[in-house]
Amino acid sequence: MVAADALIAVYMMARQRNGTIYTGVTSALVTRVWQHKTGVTKGFVQEYGCKTLVWYEQHESMIEAIIREKQIKKWRRAWKIALIEARNESWNDLARHWYD
Which pTM value belongs to this model? Predict the structure, then answer.
């Protein structure tokens, strides 16, 4: 499990490898990923089935994280895929053991 839920992060959830990608920002990554996985939050992620955490990046401040999220959201899809695959080539669920 992630050390603390107070992790400020930009993250990407996916439906499957090379599938739909959602980019978000949060001040509580563990809780936010759980919300995506269980579908308690209505919206894009639930509608498109993005339940796999494929990438995240920790930040010191929420302002810094929001700037990064907005930057990534403007990127071409190929750039987002390259970012994911640089650290998670197989698109494994990085949160698969967080809730054991």
Answer: 0.91
